[in-house]
From TrEMBL:
UniProt source species: Salinivibrio kushneri
First and last residue of the signal peptide: 1-24
Family, similarity comment: Belongs to the OmpP1/FadL family.
Localization per Swiss-Prot or TrEMBL: Cell outer membrane
Keyword Membrane: yes
Protein name in UniProt: Outer membrane protein transport protein
Keyword Oxidoreductase among record annotations: no
Keywords: Cell outer membrane, Membrane, Signal, Transmembrane, Transmembrane beta strand
Membrane topology: Multi-pass membrane protein
InterPro entries in UniProt: OMPP1/FadL/TodX
GO CC field: cell outer membrane
GO molecular function annotations of the record: long-chain fatty acid transporting porin activity
Membrane-spanning parts: none
Length: 450
């Protein structure tokens, strides 16, 4: 990977490690603003609190007057553990596979005239990073996985009528990714290694590792409709983004392929050779339908239903021209489309203080059968509270707190019926166990109206 990472990209890498419990399903990030965090991101496609609204629906820009800037960050503290049994070595566990992190965001909006408003969002919508550690005897199926993205998102909104607002945006996504696996205790080369079969493989040897980066384009469309002055609905669609992560592969698996082609001596099966290659990764399409209902002058209720096309994340394959004309299987994923349901409330305490709360439920993007150690994806329940305070007529400060319960879920590798998983057993046995986790988040944000 490139070493000259943008600051936002580096922070997003750290945050990505929390995707197994803290975010929307898979490696989708929900933490786009402290304002939204306080209501568990309920009603995001229908509520225009500040310039951050454009990232979830560009049409909301048309509700923002003059010029506005919003910036903030969310601190995430996760606890993700995996416990189980290795068929050769007995009980094994790994704790805190994710680390504390802060993710920043920045948004800008400018009202061009009575009909048009433009905006710019700098944030991230996808990211993950897991590290199972060397002491865990399940790393032969995967010891690490990471996806890092940063998005530059210019948007435009049009007030078509007094009731209908439309918006669109361009997404320029900078992405990086990696995945790896290491041997556990007592590993030996399998029978298909030919004359090398039975040769010892030292513990923690890299079996496979690949990393790469790419830049790609996407788009988003949104609409908001005011049913009347108390009820509003909004919808947003974000396109999928296809990345081809160009980089290199290394590890015993690729060395054996090089030996078979006569490119490497048999005695060098544990060498640290690098092979140029690439890996395709699709960031899935998403859609959100939201509503806002002003029940009284003080109370409002808002809801969201989110859909993510995770079925596009079915497998990871490495294209390494020097070793084969056919792609090499890295990991079968078999993910499924998922849904997120959220409901929140807003209470206007007085002219300066706004109180928020919300609850949300994320469904898992994988079945129990297809859950893996490197992405132990599971259902999550969010409980959120937050507040906004108008320090001056132009400056508003927001703060929020969220606690996320992750459902305990089984994980087993090799998975039944997936042939490519079977090779991992030779390098340290089988694993069967459970993943558990929870996380708390704290967000702060400042918004200024010029």
């Amino acid at each position: 990977m490139k070493n000259n990472k943008i600051v936002y990209l580096a922070v997003a890498t750290a945050l990505g490690s929390l995707s197994t419990t803290a975010h929307s399903a898979g490696f989708q990030l929900a933490e786009t603003s402290a304002t939204g965090l306080g209501r568990a991101f309920a009603g995001e496609a229908a509520m225009a609190d500040n310039a951050s609204a454009q990232f979830r629906n560009p049409a909301l820009l048309s509700y923002l007057a003059d010029t506005q800037v919003s910036a903030g960050g969310i601190y995430v503290n996760p606890n993700v553990d995996i416990d189980g049994e290795n068929s050769q070595h007995g009980q094994t566990s790994t704790n805190d596979v994710a680390h504390d992190a802060v993710i920043p965001n920045f948004y800008f909006s400018h009202q061009i005239d009575d009909r048009f408003t433009a905006g710019l969002a700098l944030a991230t919508n996808f990211g993950m990073e897991t590290d199972l550690g060397d002491d865990f005897t399940g790393t032969q199926f995967g010891n690490e996985a990471a996806v890092t993205t940063f998005e530059i998102n210019p948007n435009i909104a049009w007030k078509a009528t007094e009731q209908l607002r439309l918006g669109a945006g361009i997404r320029y996504v900078l992405g990086e990714g990696s995945i790896g696996a290491k041997s556990s205790k007592g590993a030996q080369l399998p029978k298909n290694a030919g004359p090398l079969a039975g040769s010892p493989v030292p513990e923690h040897s890299t079996l496979k590792y690949m990393e790469g980066d790419d830049r790609a384009w996407g788009w988003q469309l949104g609409a908001v409709y005011d049913i009347n002055d108390k009820h509003r609905v909004g919808v947003n669609y974000r396109s999928e983004v296809d990345l081809t992560l160009e980089g290199h592969a290394e590890g015993l698996t690729y060395n054996l392929a090089a030996i078979q082609k006569g490119q490497l001596a048999g005695a060098d099966y544990l060498s640290s050779n690098h092979y140029s290659g690439s890996m395709d990764l699709t960031l899935p399409a998403t859609a959100e339908f939201s509503s806002l209902h002003q029940l009284t002058e003080q109370w409002a209720v808002h809801t969201s239903i989110n859909w993510t096309e995770w079925s596009s994340f079915d497998k990871l394959e490495a294209d390494i021209p020097s070793l084969s004309s056919d792609p090499k299987m890295v990991k079968v994923e078999n993910w499924e489309d998922n849904y997120r349901f959220a409901i929140g409330t807003t209470y206007q305490w007085d002219q300066k203080l706004t109180l928020r709360s919300g609850v949300a439920y994320d469904t898992s993007a994988v079945s129990d059968k297809n859950r893996t150690l490197t992405i132990p994806e599971t259902d999550r329940t969010w409980l959120s509270v937050g507040a906004g305070y108008d320090v001056t007529p132009k400056l508003t400060l927001d703060a929020a707190f969220t606690y996320v319960f992750a459902k305990d879920a089984p994980v087993k590798e090799p998975r039944d019926g997936i042939e490519s998983d079977q090779s991992g057993s030779a390098f340290g046995g089988n694993f069967e166990g459970e993943t558990t986790g929870n996380v708390w988040l704290v967000g702060v944000q400042a918004s200024y109206r010029f």
